[in-house]
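User: I'm new to structure prediction. If I give you an amino acid sequence, what do you actually give back? Let's try with this one:
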Amino acid sequence: MNNNSEQPIQSRISDPTSFQRMFMEPIPPSPQQSHLVSQPHQPPLIHAPVRSRARRAPRNDGRSLAVPIPFIWATDRRVTVHNFNYLSQNGIFNITGDVQCKRCQKMFQMSFDLREKFPEIWKFIAGNKNSMRDRAPTNWMHPRLPKCLHCNQENSVKPIIAKKKRSINWLFLLLGQMLGCCTLKQLRYSCKHTNNHRTGAKDRVLYLTYLALCKQLDPNGPFDV
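Assistant: Good question. You get back a string of structure tokens that encode the predicted 3D arrangement of the chain. For your 225 residues, that looks like this:
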């Protein structure tokens, strides 16, 4: 890792020019626009065999690689969010998600500030990665939940996690350090689509989920497995 990637994330974020130059890679063109490129007209084949059909998009285990974009901070790939540079340039800082209080049962939305929460996680991983030994620590396995805005009960607000795994609000869960609220099956789904091993115990796949999402936000950060 170079010296720039070892600097505290706050110092890099405070200098936009330096941050854009050292912290993130250039933003690739949106894959959503690829279908807008016009193609030259092709005459129909007179004696085309039955197997000659229009080429289909690549598939993964029988499913299309692209999915409907569930949130503005997510891409059209499963378990993939935009990097910090993209989110900053587009003013996407307030990451919202649906939650429910375990005590009063009220459902509402919460918001986490990307500029505040991600540096906290960045520093925690940088300072504790070696001692984790590729396993999620206790505070990730059993997260301290937020306080309810309605009944003021501490440690009571759980995230409402989408039933369809492709629609899970991964960035919201990361910033709230509530990925531990996911089931083992959901975490293994995350590992599958971020190209990580998914056969271990929950503390292992939870650790890999944290690092994979953080690496999407900061490819140059201390998040290599």
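You can read the tokens as a compact description of the fold. Here is one thing that stands out. DSSP finds nine helices and five strands in the chain.
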